[in-house]
Every structure is written in C-alpha cells, then in structure tokens.
Amino acid sequence: MRKLLVLFLLAVIAFSLYKPLSTIEFGADRMGSIENPTTVGAYYLSKTPSELSVANVITAIVVNYRGFDTLGEVSVLFLAATGLGSILYRRRKEGEHSISISKPSSQLLQAGSKLIYPAILVLGAYVFIHGHLTPGGGFQGGAIIATGILLMMMSYKDFHLNHTVLTWIESLAGITFATIGIAGLIVGKTFLENFMPIGTLNDLFSGGIIPIIYIAVGFKVAAELAGVLDTLLSIKEK
Amino acid sequence: MVVSPVHFIAVPLLAAFLMPILAKVNKNLLRIVPGIVLTYLGYVSVVLMNRVATEGTIIEVLAGWSAPWGINLVYTPFTGFLATLMIAMSFLIWLYSFKFKKVDDEPALKYFILQLMLTTGSVGLVLTGDIFNFFVFMEIIALSSYALTAFYRDRNGAEAAFKYLLIGAFASTLFLLAIVLLYSQVGTLNMAEISVRMHDVPTSMKVSILVLFLVGIGIEAEMFPLNGWAPDAYSQAPSPVGVAFAALVVKAGVYGLVRITYTLFGIEGSGIGPFLIIMGGITLVMAEITALKQTSLKRMLAYSSIGQMGFVLIAFGIGTHEAVFGAIFLMFNHAIIKGLLFMSGSYLVYNTPNKEIKYLSGYGMKMPVISLFFSLGALAIVGLPPFAGFWSKLYILLAAADGALYGLIALILVVSIIEIVYYFRVVGRLYFGKPAEGSIMRKPTVGGMIAMSILAIAILVVGFYPDIITGYIDAAASSILNTDEYIKNALGAVNELTPVENIIQ
Amino acid sequence: MEDILKLLGGAAATMLLAFVVGATYGGLVRKIIARTQNRVGPPWYQNFVDISKLYMKDTAVHHGVMQHIGPAFAITASVTVLMFVPVLREGGWFPWFENLNFKGDIIFLIYMMVFGSLGMALGIGQTGNPNASIGVSRGLSMMVGYEIPFVLSLVSVMVQTHTTSITGLMEWQTQNGWLMFEAPFAFITMLLAILGMFHYAPFDIAHAPSEIASGPPSEFGGKYLAMMMTSGSIFAFAKLVFLVDVFMNGASNLVMLVVKTLLLYMVPVLYGAVSPRYRTEQAIRYLWGWPVFFGIIALIYSIYI
Amino acid sequence: MENIDFNQILSIAIYGSAVGLILIGLYAVLMKKHLTKIIIGLSIIDAGIHLLFIAIGYISNGTSPIFSEKGISLVSEGTKMVDPVPQALVLTAIVIGFGVTAVALSLVIRLYRHHQTARIDQIKTLKW
Amino acid sequence: MGGAILAYLAKRITPMLSSIVSFLAISSAAVVFFTMTSSTDVVTVSVRNFTLQFGLNAYSWVFAAMVMGISALVSLYNIAYMSGKDRLGYFNLNFTLAIMSMMGIVFANDWISFFIFWEIMTWSSFLIVVYNGIDEGKIGTKYMIFSAVGGYAMLMAIVITNSQIDSFLIADLINAYPTFGHGMQAMIGILFLIGFSVKAAVMPLHVWAPRAYSDSPMSFTAIFSGLLSKMGIFGMAIMFISVFSKASIGDTFIYSQVIAWLGGVTAVMATFYAVIQKDAKRLLAYSSIAQLGYIVTGLAIGTKLSVMSALFLAVIHALYKGILFMAVGAVERQAGSTNLEQLGALIRKMPWTFFSALIAAIALAGIPPLGGFVGKWMLYESMITSTNPSHLFLVILIFLSSTAAFLYVYRLLFGLFLGQEEPEWDHVKEAPAPMVIPMVLMALTLILLGYAPGLLFEPIANGMEFLGFENVGWQMSSLSNIWGDTVDMQYVWGSVVTLFVLGAIFITIKNRKSTRYVTTKDIHTSGEIPEAHENLTYAVDFYKPFERAIEPVMRKTMDFYYNHFGNGLESLFGFVRKIYTGNGQTYAMYVVIFLVILLLIGEQIFK
Q1: What is the pTM of this model?
Q2: What is the pairing mode between strands C61-62 and E516-517?
Q3: What is the value of ipTM here, to two decimals?
Q4: Which domain holds residue D113?
Q5: Among partner residues B160, B166, B168, which is closest to D126 by beta-carbon distance?
Q6: Residue E382: pLDDT above 60?
C-alpha cells in the first residue's frame, strides 16, 4: 500500500520534472554572446581573464564573484565539524575504558598506505595551490588530503590526529578568510574585494587574493574533513 | 571603518572562527566574546536603522562586483528591522544562556559557537540579495539548528534533531532544485534581477519553480503539512535554543517565503495570496488544536509557535499594507513573547518529569517572578490588551475585515479561544494548589532574569505605547510591498543585463 | 390638617372594620368546616375570644429581635394592603374608607401581600423550631405556586382594561360591566389561585396542624400570636376586598361588600372543607397546571379581545 | 544529423539519470527503514540535483571554463566554454551536502546508541 | 476626565504592598471623579493611524458614578476582608486593575479603547478568580473561555464596523448603522450582543458565572457581580437603544425579542438554581445571574420605562448584591464557612451584618418600600403596558423568577443568621468596622432610594436622553407608567415605615419588659425532649419539595451540554493531532505528498 503510494508519488514527480526539463534544451547556449551577456556566466567568462587574471573561471566565481557564498560554505563545514563534536561528545565516566572494535588492517594495506600517504598529501596541496589555474581548488585539495588521512586511519587503528592542531588550523584558516574579507572592506570599500595586484593570467602568483583564500580554504577543508572523519571513527563502544 | 551591513556576517563569523582558539587561551573568553560581538552588532543595527530611516535602502556590494554579478546585501527597512530584531533577541539569548553550562565543559564551547552561527545565518539570510547565497545561509541556520537541537545528551534530543534534519534536508534539496530550474530560465541569481526577468518565464515553468520554492521554504516557515519537525525540535532543544528557533529560525523562514512570493513572483493576482491564507489557516488550526492536547509545556509552546506562524502567513496572504504591517508586527511580537515564554517556561518545568504541565501546580507561589513572567507572556501571546500581542492581532483582523474575509476573522478568533484555553490552563495551574513534595525550584541566573525582564518590559511598553515601534514596521511593510523600489535599489544604476526601462514596469 | 385627620380616621375605621369582618369570617369558616365534617364546631365569635385572651396574656420568653418584629412585619403588610385597597367604591356613603387607594396600584399590592409572609418567616426563622421552619419552607414554596396563576389573572385583567391601578379598574367596570364576566378566564384562574392563597385544604400543608404542630406559629404565644391572628384576620379581609374590587367592581355599601366577599371566600373554604391535603410539590404542580393554563388563555383572550 | 542524435541521446541520458537519481533517492528516503539508508537516499537526491545543475549549464561542444593557455581569447577561436556558474554553485552545494551528511551520520550514531536500533519507525518517542 | 484614569495608572503599581493603598487609590480616584464631574473634556490618545478617545457623557456618568462609589466602599471593606491572606499584592493589583478598567470602559468613546479595557477587566478578574485556587482550574478556564468568546465576538464586530465606516468611534457606529446592509446590520448586531451577553451572563452563556462569582474572594465578588457584569449591560444598552433604535424596526426587532426572552429564561432558571444551592456564595452567584436577567430583559424591551427600570435596577443591584456578597464575606471571614446547612443563628453575633443583609434582601426581593421595588415595578409596568404580546407572556417568567427569589432570599437569611444556635459558632464576632461601615452605608442608601428614587432617576434620565430617548420624565418619588397609573413612593414608604414602626413599638412595649431571652435551643418540640447537643434547625434540603416540583426543568444543565461539546471537541482534537505520528519518515511523506499535490494543482491555483 505504502509502496504503491510512494510509486505513484514518484511517478508524479517524475512527470512534473519531465515537463519543465523538456523545455530546457540540453546543450543549448543560454549564455548569450560574450559582448552582450544575458546570463551572469557569460559575464564572468568575459571579465575574468582581464580583470582578475585567473585562469579558472570557476575558481574566480567561487572565490571572488561569489566569495561570500564560499565564506558561508566554509562556515557550513566549520559548523559540521563543530556540530559533530557537540553531538557526539560524551562525558567520560570514571574508570570507563574505550575499546576499539575495529580490527587491525592487513600488512599490505599498512605498507601501501604508508607509501601513498605523502604523495596524496602533496597532490592535495598541489590541487589547492593551483586552484586558480587548473581544475580543482581548495575544496578539492582539502578533500584529497582528507582521503589520505582517512587511508591512514583505516590502516592504523592507533592513528590519531591531534585535535588541538586541527583546531588551530581550522580557526586560523577561517580567520584568514574572514580577515582578508574585512581587509577588503577597509582597503577597497567592499567586503572580500580583490585588493591585491592581480598579476598575469596563468601565473602561479596571479589573481590577487584568490589563491591565498583558496589555500586557506584548502587547509580548512582538509582539517575539518579530517576532524570529522576522526570524530566519526573514534566512536567506541563501551 | 564605516559601519555597513556586512558586519552582521563578517564579524560574528570571524569571532566564531576565533573562538576555538580563544577557548584554548581562556575558557571564560568563550562566554564573553559572543556578548561583545552581539553588542557591537547591536550598535551597528542602531546606526543602520537610523541611516535607513533617513536615507532609504542601503545596498552593500560584496567583493567589488555590483549586482547582479556579485552578491549584494540589501538593507531595506524590512530586512533591517528583522536583522535588528534578531540581533536583539540573540543578545538576550546570550544573556539568558550566559551561565548555561559549566564553561570547562567541552559542549559549552560548541554551544556558543553554534548560537553565534545561528544568528549569523539568520541575519545573513535576511540581508542577502542573492538567491543562492540565501540557500547557503539557510544551510548555515539548518546545520547549527540540528546541532543545537541534539545538544542535550538524551535520546529525545537526537531523535528530534534527526527528524529536523530529514525534513530540513528535503527543504534544502527542493530549494536547490528550484534554484536550478530558475537559473536555467533567467540565468542569474540576484533576486532583484530574477524578479525583473520573471515576466519572461513560461507559466508552467514558473509554477513548478514556485511550488518547489514554496515547499522548500515552507518547511522552514513551519507551514502545515511540512512542520512535523518543529514541535520535536522546539521541545527537545535547550530552552535558549527554543527561543532562538522562535525568534530567528522561523522568522528567517517566513522572511524567505515572503521575499520569494512578494519579490520574486509578485503576490498580486497570482493566487499565492489565497494559497497563503488557506495554508496559514490550516496551519493555525492544526497547530492550535494539537497544542490544546499537549501535556508537555515546551511542546505546547512549540505548537503555539507554529500556530502563530500560520497566523503570520495568513496576514502575508492578505497582502494589503495593513495586513503586512500586522504580520511584521506579529513577527516582532512573537519573537519577544515566545522568547519570554520559553525562557520562563523552561525554568518552570526545569525539574518536572517530562516537562509536564500537570506538575506545575502552585508554582506561582514558589517562583512568583518567573510565574509572573510566564503569565504575562501568556496574556500577551493570546492577544489580550494592553499587551503587545493585541495590536498585531488587531491590525491583522482589521486588514481581514477590510478585505471582507469575515469567515477568516471568525476562524482566527475561534482559534484564539483555543489558544486562550490552553494557555490559561497553565496559568491557572500555576496559581493553584500546592507544589508536589520535593520539587526543587531552579534558581534563575542573573543574566536570565535580566533577559526576561527586558522582554517583559518590551511587551509592556509596546503594549501601552505601540507607536514606539509602528513607525519602523510601517516603513518595513512599505518596503516589502514595493517590489519596484526593491529592484531599483538593489540593482542600482549599473545594470547592463536588463535595460533600465524594463526594471520599472 | 383636616386631610390628615380624615386619613387617620379612615385608616382606623377601615382597620376596625377589617378586623371585625375578618375575624368574624374566620369564625364562620371554622364553623362551616366543622359542619361539613359533621362536627359541631366553635361559635362564630370564637376568634374574638381567642385574640382577646391572647392579648391579655404575658409572654415569658422570646428568642431574639426578629421574633419581636416578625409580627410587626405581618401587621404592617396586612394594614398597608388594606390602606391601598378601596374598601367601598368611591362616592359611597361612607367616604372614610377611601384611604390611600389612589396612590398605589396592583403590582404594588401583589408585592405588599408577600411582604408580610416574608417578614413573618424571618421571625419564625429565628425561633429555630424545626416544625416552624418546615412550615415556612412549605409555605414559601407554595407561594411560588399560587402567585403565578394569581399574577397571570391580574395581568390579563390589566391588559384588558389598560390600567394598572385598582381604582382605574373599578372605573372601567363601572362603564363596561364586571370583569368577572368581561374577563371570564381571568376570573376562573383567580378562583383557582385563591384556593392556594388562603391556605385551606388541600393547600394547607404549610400549617398541617396534625403533622408539624401548626407549623410556622408554633413558637409564638401570647401577644405575638395575638398580633399574628389580628394581622391574619385583616389580611384575609384585605385580600377579599381586593378581589372583589378587581372582579366585581367593589361594593358601594357595606352590605354588598359583605355579601360579595363572603361569596368569594366560600370558594376556597368549601373546596377545602371536602379535600384532603396535597403534598407541597403536588400543590405546586397542581397550581402550575390548570390554573396556569387558564391564565394563559385569559392572557390571550385579553390581548385579542 | 548524427550530431543532433548524439545530443538527444546525451540529453536523455543525463536528464534521465539525474531525474532517476532523484527518484531513487526519494524512494530510499520514503521506503527504507534504516536511518543510514535514508541518509544515503538524501545524498543520492543531492547527487541527482547536482547532475541536473551541471547538465543545465552544459553547452554542446563546450569546453571547460578554464583559460588554460596564455592569452586565450574566448569567442574568436570559435570555441565555447560551458556556463561556469552552475559548476561553482554545485561545488558549494556538494560541500553543504557533505556537512549535512556528516551531521546526519553523527545523529544516527547517537540514535543507535540510545535506542539500540536504527529503524526509523521504532524511533518515535516524540509524537503528537 | 482622564484625571481619574491617570490617577489609577499612577497608583496602579503601588498596591503591591497593601490593600490600604488600593483603597486609597480607588477612593482618591472616586474623589477626583465626583469633584470633576462637570468637566466634559475629551482626552485623545493617538495610536498609529487611529485615535482613542476618552470622555464622559451623561449616560456613562451613571455607570462611572456607580463604579466609583461602590468600589470605593468595597475597597474599604477589602482592607479588612483580605487582611492576613497571602499574596495580597497579586490580589490587590488585579483588584485595582479591574476597577480601573471598568472606568476605562465607561470612559471610552471608541470601540478600541472599549475593547482594550474590556479585556483588561476580563483577565484581571480571571486572575482573581483563580486566586483562591479551588477546583483545579476549571472555573477559571471556563470563565476565560466564555469571556474570550464574548470578547472576540465583540472584536470581530469592531473590526467589521471599522471596515465599513473607517472609524472606531461609538458615535459613528450609531450614526452609520442604519446605512448598513441587512446582513451587515445583523452580523454586527449579533456579534456585539454576544459580546455583551457573556459578561451579563445571559442564559446560554452564563455557565461561567456561578462558580466564578462564588470562588472569588468576596470583596471582589461584590465588584464582580455588582459592577463588572454591569459592563455588559452598559454596552448592551448602547446597542439596544442607540444603535438598534436608529435602524428600521423590523431588522432589529427580533434580536430584542430573543434577548428579552433569554433574559427571562435566565432569570427563571438561575433563580431555580439559586433556590437549591447549599452554599451562600453559590446562591448569591445564581441570584446575580437571575437579577442580570431582569436587567437584560428590561433593556431589550426598550421602552422608556423599561430602560429606565433596567438602568435603575443595574445600580440598585450593584448596591444590594454588593451588600449581600460583603455580608457573606464577613460571615465567611468570621465563621469560616458559608454553608447554609451548617451555619446558623449568627444574628446575635453579627447584628450589623444582619441588618445590612436584611435590608439588601428586602430590596432584592423587590418588596416595597425599598429601592428594589421601584425597579421591579417599572419593569412590570413597562411589560404590561407594552404593545407587544410576547412581553406580556414574558411577565410570567419574570414574575415567577422574582417570586421564587423570595425563597432563596429567605434561605440565605435563615441559613446564615437564624435558626438554632450552635456551640460551634460561639466564637464568632461581629466583623471589624471597615467591613461593617460600607455595608451599612449601602443599606441606608437603599432605604433612601426607596423614599426618593428620583435621586437616581435624574442621572439615568439624563443618560437616556443622551442615548436617544426624548423627554424622559421622572419625579422625585413617584412612579408612573404610560397609562397614567402611578405609585407614590412617599406614601408607600410613609405608610409602610409608619406602620412597621408603630407595630414594632407596640409589640416591644408590650412584650419587652415581661419577656426574657432564652436560647433557641429551648423550644417547643411537640412533646419530644431533644438531647442537648442536637441541632434541630431544619436547614438541610430546605426546599426539597420545591426542588421536586421543578425537577423536570432542572434535569439537564447547560453545563452538561457544554461539557459534552467540549469533550467532543477535545477528542476530535486528540484524533487530529495523531497526524503528528512521531515518525520522521511519515513527515517526509507529508512533504512529498504536499509537493505532489501542489505540482498537480499548481497550474490551477497559481495563475
């Protein structure tokens, strides 16, 4: 009964989604010409190389045009990490020993991950440092780093991150972001304004504040994801 | 540094990022910092409210890109009013929860951060002029609310939070889907710009988008079939969080609903008005009759809160200046009154099993001041003169009468009677009988008393002299109703995407 | 000055008349009832003897101030009613009996008739005698019973004649004939109502000599009782005069007065002489049955005639 | 001709899979009793929407919006770049989705800890 | 005239300390009121886009004077009555607030301030009703529900009125009412009447009253029943006389008829209930309802005489019911009980209280020559002389009720003050002077009004002329109806008092010397010898026979129906709220269903 109802509902939703989607032609160019943009996307494409000198338009959007979103996004991550800590916090009772229920991993995995781990970290760092030039950026890089840490956690059951360090990284990165924003407000009248020299397109040191923010974001994301993973994994049964 | 709306978001975020570090330095800083931040923001609010009253809407461009390319903050009298209200309420919540938890407790750290983020999210949501940014702030609110709901380490907290999360995730999903469809049609995310371009969107598409938006934001605004999460969350969250829900989260939701229906789609002749009236009416009735049967005080307050939101929706649905005025007034009143009720109510039920009303007999003697506060709140929220709640109810009823909606008036009043029944059941009980043996009264903290006193005084002052606030609300109502004005202000003179003559139609 | 003298003289004369006639009627009634029940009965002047004897007796004990003034209430009520009722029709050969009858009206008289009972009841209440209290309870309850048809009848008469003053009623009757015939239903109602009003059987449960020791006055003796009996005599006469005034256009001379009042008085007396006793609720239900029905018919009759 | 066909197929495939993901996710949320599965369902819905968003920003034969070579000019080359905005937004949306999922999972852990079950229909202490 | 209000507002905070302050506040306001009556200035307060007006007119002066005079006396009584009780601050705050708000109501020139003060009155009195804390909150809640029904009906009428004429002024409604459409007239009229009827405790809306009256502290009940309920009368008079009479007769005739009959039925039923009560407070509470029934009937009949009688009765009722409640309060305070079946023979212990109560009872019963009779007489005469046949039948109801009133009046006096003395009550003393003085003063006023009702006719006639009657004639001490029949109260009063005094003197002189007082234990018992400890007073089920006689109409009370209605609703609500199942997935399902419904019908509703 319930199943039928759900299927019916899904059918209606599918139909209702089909209707508007059928009017959106796939692959059609809705941006308008660059000279006379009808969407903001086209405008970004036309302005980014010249005014921000950032090769990756998406990065430009994420960090600059819509940097405020990203600030919010970072906050969401921060919130997730904080919230997780708050939700999963347990007051340790006297004499309560936590015993990990996970078994140690195989030798192969341990050796392999030891090998790959630095490489992953380097890759992550690369991705977020070059976020304004190549595909990728702070989030992606941070995520890559976090996967590396996850790998280590899975391999070594005693692998633990120092939460104090994570907190410092998180906070400092966040503060950097917010401070740069406020600096923009002070220097250039608007919050998050790109007040630094933009350099030339496709240079590593180009795009003004964009790479700095992205690097901060990268650190922050990495720290937070790692922190979340660590918190989730360190759930112990009594 | 010149005061500007972005301070509302940047400063608390900075503080929130800073707080984990500060906590390492000195635990006490943790409690104090939000107070400082909120005090500063209060100052900002005052300055900006004055400025907006004299100079009109303030537009803050972010990242140096003016709308529609960048994100902008739009500080109209309406958004400004709400932001100010939220800041003020947050400050009181902070006062109330100042001694909330022992500071060396790990969660206390999280608590203050989360509360601060909740405030930031709500204010940001109200101020932003960008639909996707709106979505982001919605998520900030949502995440901090989830975490705060599950703050107490009992089973119910987690359950409530999970329900909230499940429904909240739906809300954000639908909202995002709506944004997707919207973007495909108008190619922009700035709300003013969207509003201008909305005319060209085909009707069926428009309806789909509208429906998705309505359901998405209706969840946050506690519209009837979508509000299953609300009573659980309200009743299981720590009481300052309950206050925050009533004063910030729901307000933000209603704001979103109003912004989307009024500005993006235009309320006149679109069928949205009657829809809001009907849904508001159903919400009101359902919530109030459910509240009538509640045995737990906080749950009762939660349903009552939902009911009030239904009432607000009705008023916004009527859509005349008078009605919108009443609705905003009601939002204000609901924030302060429900704040007082939650604050005092939580002290009352602090030591009762299950927070049940039936154990409250005779607390009027034992906790006279708290009981007085609660009674005051109850009197005010059911709209008895001369307290604050009366005026908003009166204005909404007047608006309904002007629209010849007599059935609606009768409905509202009948529901008000239900409301009176359950509130006065509690008030009556407070002054009846002897308290049960061994019931321990929780002594209110100084900060809590101050916060409650401020709210009580506000209720009385607004009740006796509503003109103290009506000027602001009038301006707010005008600003929300005048979409053209909003578009003109938000987009400013620089608008290359849309010819200027199209803006004002 | 002369007016006041005339007034006082008239009042005194009326009271005397009322007392004499009332007490005589009382004696007659006792005789008649006795005869109906195949007894010899006391002589007709027995009431005078009783009252004189009681006035001469000294009272030894009392139970408080209300017992003192209870009889005073009673006599106030009966004399006041008498004062405001025209004993003889205007222009009769004995003008002294006019008293204050232009200054009151029927509603006032209705209320005044209750005054005495209530005052008495208070006096009785203070004695604390259970029999007396039971009597009061029954009496008051029954009063509610008979007042309704009584008032219905009077209201319909008033509506028919468009006056609420008793002198006005009599003027109307002089022109249009007796209300007894002009308002037959009202008269029937009244006849039924006075069955209850005079407290004779079957409506004598308030006194019920054999059951509750005569009920209300059981704690009164000597001068108190004498006063109550005086008041009772006057009151009975006043009521009769009132009824005669309303339905039979009063009387122009004393002979007619005696005839008419006696005729009217015989109705409850004779009915009572052959009836057993009703319980209180039976009495009330009876009085709210047919009498009220006739009363309503009377009212409709008077409205639409 | 071939081109159009390919485009249509792609359209059906992508839109279809996006909608399909949404429906699958919805089904999971509405029908599955296990909390974790419900959360997975939510994630799947999210994924579907992200896919849809990207698809909407896609332009036939467009390239990614990265000026990978120096001095590249947009229009003159005849190459089109796809709309970058959806991609940027999806990036944000993904991160947000991650946050929600993380919190959800932590709640599941809490719930399991308290109730010793993860079936949603058995966790209803709070009702009415 | 705002001075009086301001005096209140200023003093409102202070009664936190003692009832004396409250008395001072009220009496000073009373002094201010009575010395400033000549001023007719209008105080205007503006709130956003409308203005509130306060002012005094000839009509409201009657009520204002009544409120001020009586509440000043009652607050004096209150000092002694409430001494030694808990939470005086709480009580006195609300006490003063209630009185203040009544003044606000009569001062109000517009509906908004009328409503504001109306509701202040409601909740402050609610808080007093729950003060004693009896019966688990049911009474208070009931009172609040009914008041809310009434208040909100009124509010609805007010906002609808405003939407029609864009003004809140009472005067504007009066002028504009005839111009409304048929349905609008009916709606506004009915809503207002519901609003006022609740406070005036008219029959189907009366169930709150008995318990609310009897469970409040007596010093407030004197106000509650005497004055507060009169606010309903106040408003009703405006409706009936000013508003309806301007409209075409046919439209509003039916309301007047309905309300008049409701008033009559109220009077009868409440009287019956009063008769069978065992508790003095409850008895008086029902009696109040019955008396209000007369007043309502008088207003609804709407002739010059009937309205005058209604207003006269309103004032008189405040006086005598004030006395009675205060007397019962005094008994309660001194003896600790108000149970008519247990108390007795307090007359020797509390003579002044008895005296006042006796006078008040006589007035209540409507027996000449006191003020009560004047009002009753006018009421009957107005009905008998009415051209409307239905009023003639109504007379029967009213008469039945007022005859049955003798029963409970007697019961009250008998139960409290008469009967056999019990050792249990030997300790009882006369109430302290602050309690006795107001009672005696008010009793003397009643006697005075019996002699010269014109003292009260003058302001009432002025008020009625303000309301829209023309040439309201009155004489100082003579009553007359439209058929030209009169009752001369001077003669009535003179003869009754003279005879009574003569009779009393006679009997006293004759008997006083020779008799001695014996306790009421020492009585004739028809030969039986009572045990010393036995109390033979016949007080339990005093009117059992009467009860049996009226039993058919008493079987089901309105309360019964309301309770069933309430329970039915509650179980319906209980069923409805099951929709919140507690299962998160179900909620998600609701969301999806709602979404689907909207998607399906969206095109239709959103154009």
Answers
A1: 0.88
A2: parallel
A3: 0.84
A4: 2-63+80-122
A5: B160
A6: yes
